[in-house]
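Hey, can you fold this one?
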Amino acid sequence: MTRSKYLLPLIGAVLALAGISAAAAAAAPDVPLTIKNQVFQPQTLTIPAGRTVKIMVTNKDSMPAEFESSQFDREVVIPGDSAVPVSVGPLKPGKYRFFNDFHPESTGTLLVTPEHGR
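Sure. Predicted structure:
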């Protein structure tokens, strides 16, 4: 009886930690996006469908830029020489256009791919 008194909480703690680890492993990583010379680099980002992803937009120019998409409803000003996280999703598989509203010829594509096993 004494052993089970200590064993059950220990098993519960291990299972809880395993659940946290599984959730952390399932979380999508941050996706880097750079604006330099008013051009998005890379011009295509790939993210998994059905998940919220943080795109870390770094503006290496001295002038502000805007990360915008009417297709996935985001509009964020990125001040010059700074970085701003932009939360995107969850989205369905497909191609979504984004652009710099301050420099409209600067465009990119967000490629949303189905997750394996879904």
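The first strand starts at residue 31 and ends at 36. Let me know if you want another pass with a different chain boundary.
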